[in-house]
Design goal:
Length: 351
């Protein structure tokens, strides 16, 4: 048996184990697979979520949405609240500190189309933690309990929670928080296996995720540094998690979701889509960013996605053209330059 064959048969054995566990389910929603696209403020907007779904994410989560009702008409929140036409289950993530405000925001978002409410207790950003929201909440277990109970009793849709493993390595309390969540009626939990203090540095503590999985009966999604089908399999195996969440690794290569989902389900590699499909995906993604935000804002927000796509796809692009695509203030020109480059360099048919 070759190394490749034995790797594949090991993967197949694990895949069969996962299949035996059954599909990932949140409330009455049975997910198509075990791969979730991470909430990422400034990234997982409506156009990005559409691309992730199209390329195999079994669940996508909105960018975090503030619980403050006075900000609902701000430009940023208005875009985040646009859920029109999204397929179920529509997950909206809320961020805040006050139980009553979060409960009322949950009700508002359910009326606005949310079918699952996720609470953010994982964000380490200074701007968020300064207000004692996001992962800063993990330091106050009583408040966590109050928030979760308030939100769960305010809505008749599943409430889920996203956490880190604690606020610092000295105060890791993910297992306690998970038990509070389960007792409060939270129906699924995602854990980014780092503390707030660790931000994005250092190794992910998959062992802590495994301890949480062992301690509670609600479905657990493992998150942190998953960037390949093999890594996903190893993390699923090492944590016994019910699903895997992918954030940064899918930027510029959303087809990773399907690759990972197929590998977990069958132990086989799904080839990435043909060059023409990838080129069309990129062109359509940029077009939909321009359409969703309007060309002025859209052109700026498209830049980082274009950069990620080009970085992942090592096509020889001249520095001048790269600069022109990322600095032009003309949305139509941005689309045209990108399209000409991608289709031209691949010698493809226009979409
Ligand atoms: C740009 C960016 C924005 C993020 N925004 C959010 C957010 O709004 N809500 C949240 O729960 N986590 C947020 N995260 C954390 C991710 O959901 C995820 O937990 C983290 O990136 C680790 O996963 P990864 O290693 O697969 O990227 C963000 C991460 C990044 C890189």
């Amino acid at each position: 048996m070759t190394v490749l064959q034995s790797r594949k048969s090991i993967a197949t054995v694990f895949s069969l184990t996962f299949l035996a566990q059954g599909p990932m389910q949140i409330g009455s929603y049975i997910l198509a697979n075990k791969v979730v696209a991470a909430p990422m403020a400034g990234v997982s907007d409506k156009p990005y979520r559409k691309v992730c779904r199209a390329h195999g994410a079994g669940l996508v989560v909105s960018e975090m949405v503030t619980s403050r009702s006075d900000l609902r008409h701000s430009t940023k929140t208005k875009f985040r609240l646009d859920l029109a036409g999204e397929p179920e289950p529509v997950v909206v993530q809320l961020v805040g500190t006050d139980p009553a405000m979060l409960a009322s925001a949950a009700q508002f978002n359910v009326e606005n189309g949310a079918q699952i409410i996720d609470i953010n207790m994982g964000c380490p950003a200074k701007k968020v933690c300064k207000k004692a929201a996001g992962s800063a909440l993990l330091a106050n277990e009583t408040l966590v309990d109050e928030i979760l109970k308030a939100v769960v009793s305010a809505v008749n849709v599943p409430v889920t929670l996203k956490i880190r493993t604690g606020t610092s390595p000295a105060t890791r309390n993910a297992v306690t928080i998970a038990k509070i969540a389960e007792d409060s009626g939270v129906q699924a939990l995602t854990i980014h296996g780092r503390t707030r203090e660790c931000k994005f540095a250092g190794a992910v503590e998959y062992d802590t995720i495994a301890r949480v999985k062992h301690a509670v009966n609600i479905p657990i999604t493992a998150n942190g540094d998953v960037d390949s089908p093999e890594k996903a399999l190893a993390v699923m195996q090492g944590t016994n998690a019910d699903a895997i969440m992918i954030g940064r690794a899918a930027q510029g290569q959303p087809w990773l979701f399907k690759q990972v989902a197929d590998y977990l389900a069958t132990g086989a590699y799904h080839p990435i889509p043909a060059a023409q499909v990838r080129a069309n995906t990129i062109i359509e993604h940029v077009r939909s960013i321009h359409e969703f935000y309007g060309e002025g804002l859209g052109i700026r927000l498209a830049r980082k996605h274009i950069k990620w796509y080009l970085n992942h796809w090592s096509l020889a692009i001249s520095p001048d053209l790269k600069t022109q695509i990322s600095t032009t203030e003309d949305a139509q020109l941005q689309r045209q330059l990108l399209k000409d480059f991608l289709l031209g360099s691949l010698n493809l048919r226009a979409a």
